[in-house]
Amino acid sequence: MPSVKSLLAGAPAELRFDTELLIARALGWNRAKVFAFGEVEPTADVLEKLAPELARLHAGEPLAYITGSREFFGLEFTVSPDVLIPRADTELLVELAIDQCPTNARVADLGTGSGAIAVSLKHARPDLSIVAVDRSAAALTVAANNAARHGCDIECVISDWYQNLNGQFDVVISNPPYIRADDPHLPSLRFEPVEALVAGALGLDDYKKLAAGAATKLAPGGLLFVEQGADQADAVANLFTQSGLTDIVTYNDLAGHCRVTRARKNES
Ligand SMILES: C[S@@+](CC[C@H](N)C(=O)[O-])C[C@H]1O[C@@H](n2cnc3c(N)ncnc32)[C@H](O)[C@@H]1O
Description:
268 residues, alpha/beta, Rossmann fold, 2 domains, seven-stranded mixed β-sheet, two-stranded antiparallel ribbon, binds S-adenosylmethionine
């Protein structure tokens, strides 16, 4: 039987960390134990489960799809290939919404995917009424399960952006698809759903729809928050201005990238 050390030795350098995590998980260990007990030979039962997982990892599949789980904003989220793996970048959107949503606000999370934004926000701000929206029924099932897992009462609605939503919202929040159709990074994202990633030739198609719908679906004085690609802030601000939104503010993420744009609908 191969030892823990020899399993690690077979991992390419860039996959070493994730390999350690998979081995630790298979053995019911923490990561430190993987180093301390390198001579241990996992049992045949453990190897039977671990070997295909390591093969998937080495084939480029993200760790989160193999384990079915990803931490976001301090909560553990179930993920499947039907949903984007929540990114740390998106935590900024949640922080801003926690700070700026008025008390008891009605909030829509458009393109909820795993429910990472909607569930984190509801968990931190139980006063909010949150509707989580996605066009993908499979994604909404994942979001509903994550809401239940964290005891969050959230309404899940299948909809093409605002189409099936009734009434107006005080806050709309979205991390929409924003990758250009010819983006050279797309092959490295091949395990994630393309409809969660790509938004036309310039990556801006969905911002136009979110801004246009805000005219009717945001309550007077309501706020729209979106995540964007690091080089899209000016284009997003222009689209929002053209749609009559005002009071536009941008926010940088920890890496210094202009990651979130916030806009307001006029009071009258
Ligand atoms: C970038 S992912 C964001 C997922 C999640 N909010 C997050 O931040 O991890 C975009 C999501 O928008 C959804 N989506 C794409 N087009 C949509 C549309 N026309 N109407 C509603 N949802 C849509 C996708 O299914 C996907 O779940």
